[in-house]
């Protein structure tokens, strides 16, 4: 996915954003690439989830951004449920970002993420004006709001699964209590009948 195109260099800031949801393999990872130039900005917001409808656990995983020269770690998150990272690119190259499920055998774990690239253009560029800057700023804030809504949707799914699981447990516990009360009532009736039974000896 290449973020910079020559025909759009005249903008003060050029922002490209896309959203994805991918399934993570058990004990594996999924990696993606961005070709960026120095001083560009790469922003990634992500949320781990579980595709299994009966799941009530909040999934966690690892995330890392690697440089293109020596595959050095630029930014890394370990054992997190979600994250939001924004990195200024130090040099030109092809940068890699990976979502990892290496320490888990779960096959239904997925990750929803939004990738945003901001192409740097000098603020002192005579072709740049404040109106373009304001439009780009408004566009960025709108995307951040949408990313937050995506995060809330996944959290709602997890909480709904938890609530449904709790309701099932309460239902079966109530059935068990009713069964115990019925057994106890029958036992008391039987015991009281025996207690008041008249016995005669010949």
From TrEMBL:
Query: Which organism's genome codes for this protein?
Result: Lachancea meyersii CBS 8951
Q: Which residues are the signal sequence here?
A: 1-19
Q: What is this protein called?
A: LAME_0H16490g1_1
| Record-stated family | Belongs to the EMP24/GP25L family.
Supply the PANTHER family for this chain: TRANSMEMBRANE EMP24 DOMAIN-CONTAINING PROTEIN (PTHR22811)
Which residues are listed as membrane-spanning? Answer: 172-192
For this UniProt entry, what is the primary localization, expressed as one broad class? membrane
- Which GO terms of the cellular component aspect does the record hold? cytoplasm; endomembrane system; membrane
Keywords from the named record: ER-Golgi transport, Membrane, Signal, Transmembrane, Transmembrane helix, Transport
Q: Which residues form the GOLD domain?
A: 29-117
Q: How does it sit in the membrane?
A: Single-pass membrane protein; Single-pass type I membrane protein
